[in-house]
Amino acid sequence: MNIVFTARKSSAVSQAIKGNFTGPEDLNLILGKGTRVEVYLITKDGLKLIKEFGIYGEITFLQPFRPPGYTTDLLLLTTAKYEMLTLALRLSSTGEPSLHESSPQFSVISDTLTDLSDRHARPAEFGQLIAIDPTASVVCLHLYQGLLKCVPVNPHAALAGPGGAATPAIIGGRGMSRSVKVTDKTFLDHFNITIEEINIISMDFLHGASKPTLAILYQDHKKIRHVKTYELDLKAKEKSETGWSQSGLAGAQKCIAVPQPIGGIIIMGEYSISYFNPLQRSSPLSITIEATIMNSIARVDDQGHRYLLGDYEGNMYVLILDVNDPSAASSSSSAGRILVTDMKFERLGSTSISEAIVYLDNHHVFVGSHLGDSQLVLLHTEPDASGEFLEVMETFTNVGPVIDFEVVDLEGQGQGLIVSCSGAYKDGSLRVVRNGVGINDQAVLELPGIKRVWSLKDSLDSVTENVLVMSFLSSTRVVRVTPDTEMVQEDIDGFLGDSATLLCGNVKGDLLLQVTPNAVRLIAPPQHIQAGLLAEWTPPAGQQISVASMSATQCLIAVGGSTLVNLDIGSETITQTGQTTFGSEIACIDVTSIDLANRQVSPVCAVGLWDIKVLLVRLPTMEIVATHELPGDILPRSLLMTRFESVPYLLVGLGDGQLVTFILEAGLSHLSNPKKISLGTQPIILRHISHGQGSASNGHVFACSDRPTVIYSSNRKLLYSNVNLKEVAAACSFNCEAFPNSLAIVGSDDEGTLRIGSIDEFQELHVQSYPTEENDLRIAYLASRKCFSVVASRMVNEKPELVGATRLISADEDEVGFIRIYDDQTFDLQSSFELDGSEIGKCITSVTFSGDPARYLAVGTTYFYPMEEIPTKGRILILEVSDTHQLKLVAETDVKGAVISIREFNGKLLAAVNSELKIYNWKVSERGAMDSSLALECSHRGFIMIIGMATHGDFILAGDLMKSVMLLRYKANEKKIEEIARDSIVAWPTAVEMLDDETFIMAENENNLVTLVKNTETTSDAEAKKLQRVGCWHIGEQVNCFKPGTLIMSNQENDAPAVPKLLFATVSGTIGVIASLNKENYDLLRQLEINLSRVIRGVGGLDHASWRNFKDKSRTLPQSGFIDGDLIELFLDLNEDDINLVMEGKSSPGESASEDLFGHSAGVEKAEKIDVPVEDITKMVEELLRLH
Q: With the C-alpha atoms ordered 344, 345, 349, 354, is the resulting torsion angle positive or negative?
């Protein structure tokens, strides 16, 4: 039993449109990303995300739709299950901020939901096609072969609200809605029209026709392409041919209607662009272009004179229609008519490979990409130095499609990160995805020798810091940051600049305190009436200050190594009020005030000694009230007293990167509950930081080290989030006008930098991109050489052809294969190994063979020959990676087929070659690796084509192209592989993995997840050979790979209600987590899921249970064995009334508890009262949230 979470939402753009959705004067960009919709407001400052929400369906089409009488657009959306929705967006209430304010709240309004499915028809070969009549009288859809579905628009639909609005559906914070049951108000009953043209490629309605006239581009049985027009009679529910058609349109791909006053259609082809006007019957016009395939097209102006086009190589073009002057027409037949006289076609430049292009406004264009990052592009009238007429202004990160990935702990601190093979072709890249805190650099200064940094306020109570104090080896600099980001040298009278500073900060009376090795100085800043040095305390002759800490009224220093001195900071004086000497030198001190009654004075200080002890000393008496010996023999290097969720803690940073935490009890005089975790390998320096505007809370701590970490608390548990920086020596909060809510961070001694950066949300996934500009197919990590090995291919002089709905491109020739080596820190290319001609790598793994301690790379390849349907030749290559990351081939073995998957297996090599599993031994030669070789030990047949495999001990799980999965076992004594059991149900797997010896998981091409187990309870041999399906669930995306691992730190407290097992990645860029549940937690969460689905209804009225039910071409089954973690987490966003409904098992007012909008049953399981305290449910959900 498992729960599935989304750690990173889909990022690949499949659809992009613009329209006036949020208001008559608002221009919006709307993106479709798999099962999600994002709504942006187009402003003078760029794109502003104002709403995102999920759909219980796979989005296949988005289009703006404005029925008669409306002043704003509706969003017309269709799903892969042939559901059609219309949605509107409105401000939630009149009390909300205006649209252009910082955080307007929107509702998604569900207008209509129409079921267009036909169980007995065959789906259209070229996918769903939709066209809307320019007069908004009918929506026409080609969903099934030989059928046009016509959905007439109700001319009398008059919905309340501005521009037409239906009953609002309230959208939750994470994207689902609670809505009323809606009916079709905008549309009349739909009907079918049979059509002879089976394979329609593209279609669009003509502009300016007296009746709805549909132009269709289709392919006949001889694969010849034609275009013709039909006139639709909505009353008679019939079509009629207009008598106009054109044939022999070689390579035609798209049919685009041109608006009035020009009219007509544009036919985009691979080799030409043609213009026709079926209504005027004017002469066709055609221009020849260089062979290419257009993925996307966007009209620039409302008159249809200019169009932007994007091709499969990422080129952007402009098409211009030149028209005549109708008033100066030379013939009576063309008088008063606008005719296209010429077409101009020009390349503008290179962008990401586009899936959709939208011309926004003022020469700005949005390029939505499925294979690379989406972009905001600015068009120029003159070319730049490289001949490009465009400039990329903003990039939107897309991880998808993820072909393969590795989960590795590069830093050795128990937290995995993902390195993925993402994108394709020129947009191919390696992406590093990690959990933690992102620091977004706003300024980086090269300051060799910088050691420490502090920020100063103009007054103690101020929430902003405008001054930075930077300490070097033997000097100190003070700078003020102006609102326009300039750093100006600040001269403070009395401040020592020719000495290193140990400590600096604000104290009461709006004064400053500077501690150097030779003095403690109380200074009045320039704005003070007594500006300059007010008081100074110096240590006895011959002694220096080694360590210091301060509060608003106190300063504790270590003098002469082992003497602790307590100084009271007055309005103009520094007074020594206590002193004590220890038997060991003082390593660190902290006197942070965490007394809730008085935040300016601390009643105790913490002291770390060189004899590996931590003391609590009462102030000002200097009495030792608590002593704790630290484990091990590592020196404490930093102490910090703080409060997390009002609980007082003492944090101890050790010299080896370990952190020890204590709870302070009994009036801050007792240390209890010690816990120790590893944050890095270098000494830890602890600093308070503020997170959020005006925050002065002690709720976040920055641990400076070689693995910098932010420490915080949730639900009374300490949490640790890594920071996306390599090494930090010092840090402080810095919240000024130029850099609000930021940190000032000092890098390592070698780096010598000061960076100012803003802080992302904690526990977020952060992505770094390393472009490769080729197809990265498979990846493996070689820990012994600290490098990643990638199987890649690059296209050369390809002849493209469209393949599938995602518009990937295949090629007939000149695909060159490589094995690449990348450094695991910089991701610089270190070396390459080129494969043979027509040879492409299919899989890669690192392997250590029995009897040979060396670590090798094993690569499986195949040879592609033009007339060969099933590969007949491949190789297994064994390569060695040197200390300098150079590749050397040490052995190779020819095989009769494609090596599709390869794994290290019990000191041997397991390979899947077409329909056969093979196990190879490594025959070690005394003369070295170059004379060693692979020797086949055993093999097993019985597959159609193996698509992937997983191993656990002696067990092998193999996924078959059409026969689901098979479990096998290797018998070493008998040197054979035997079949144990197989899934008896036909399935087409896309990824397989083993959870353990007994439990297995499969993703299949209908976008379902299936878990299977061995049947250990039966006494029948026949039944024992069948794998039992114990879980099935519709995920809604194609999963390409599973990998064991987690993105959270393994040192987090491990009493969570679920145990993370696997990470997965999809073609749309989603990264997800699968965690296992015990039966008790599964039953509780399943009931919570059912109850939540009754209160949080899907957008448009789509039903959660129907969405998550397993479905393939032959059957639909209720979901089982899986919990929707994304829905469970929405519990945290509910208000008190909705929480009560969930706990009582009741539906929202006006909701049906058992049926969706089509009257279908939502599932046999019923909502029931949950007899668990709501506090316990909240705690459980919060703990689940932290798993990703």
A: positive
Q: How far apart are the first and last CA of the chain?
A: 18
Backbone angles phi, psi at 401, to 5 degrees: -75, 135
Crossing angle (nearest 10°) for helices 1079-1095 and 1174-1185 = 100
**Can you tell me the mean pLDDT for 1144-1152?**
72
Instruction: Look at residue 590 and give its three-state secondary structure.
Output: strand
How many CA within 13 A on the CB side of residue 594?
A: 28
Cβ count within 10 A of residue 753: 15
Token reading at 149: 């579905």
Q: Give the contacts of 192 (CB within 8 A, at least 6 positions apart).
A: 118, 147, 148, 149, 150
How open is the CA angle 343-346-352, to the nearest 5 degrees? 130
Structure tokens at 779: 């990846």
Determine the pLDDT at residue 45.
85
Contacts for 271 with CB less than 8 Å, ≥ 6 apart? 250, 251, 288, 289, 291
Q: How would you classify the pairing of strands 908-913 and 364-368?
A: unpaired
Structure tokens at 525: 């800043």
As a whole number of angstroms, the distance between CA 707 and CA 733 comes to 19
Contact indicator for 1054, 1048 with CB cutoff of 8 Å: no
Nearest to 604 by CA among 581, 586, 578: 578
**Cis before residue 212, ω within 30 degrees of 0?**
no
Dist. CA 878–CA 889, nearest whole Å: 6
- Give the Cα-Cα-Cα angle 195, 198, 204 (nearest 5 degrees): 70
Question: How many Å apart are CA 60 and CA 885, to the nearest integer?
Answer: 45
What is the average pLDDT across 673-697? Answer: 75
Residue 1162: the pLDDT is: 43
In 735-863, the DSSP E strands lie at 742-746, 753-759, 764-771, 775-782, 787-795, 801-803, 808-810, 815-823, 829-834, 839-847, 856-863
Euclidean distance between CA atoms 743 and 523, whole angstroms: 25
Gyration radius (Cα) of the chain, Å = 34
Residue 538 · residue 522 · CB < 8 Å: no
Residue 1021: CA atoms inside 13 Å, Cβ hemisphere, count?
1
Phi, then psi, of 1087 in degrees rounded to 5: -65, -40
Tokens of 446: 């090269």
0.90 cut: is pTM over it?
no
Nearest to 939 by CA among 904, 977, 969: 977
Q: How far apart are CA 609 and CA 562, in angstroms?
A: 9
Kindly provide the b/e burial profile for residues 595-616, where b requires at least 16 CB atoms within 10 angstroms of the residue's own CB.
Answer: beeeeebbbbbbbbbeebbbbb
In 3D space, the residue among 1132, 1144, 1138, 1137 whose CA is nearest the CA of residue 1175 turns out to be 1132
Alpha-carbon distance values, 579 to 48, 519, 1011 (Å): 59, 16, 68
- Please report, as a single letter, which amino acid is at residue 63: Q
| Spatial CA neighbour of 73 closest among 17, 113, 32, 129 | 17
pLDDT digits (tens, 9 = 90+) for 219-268: 999 999 999 999 999 999 999 999 899 998 988 999 999 999 999 999 99
Does residue 594 register a pLDDT over 90? no
Nearest CA to 995 out of 884, 1076, 912, 941 is that of: 1076
56 touches 75 (CB < 8 A): no
* Residue entry with tokens 């379902």: 1008
- pLDDT tens readout for residues 1153-1173: 445 444 444 444 788 899 999
Count CB neighbours of 805 within 10 A: 13
> What pLDDT is recorded for position 180?
35
Residues β-bridged to residue 139: 132, 151
Contact call for residues 691 and 759 (beta carbons, < 8 A) = yes
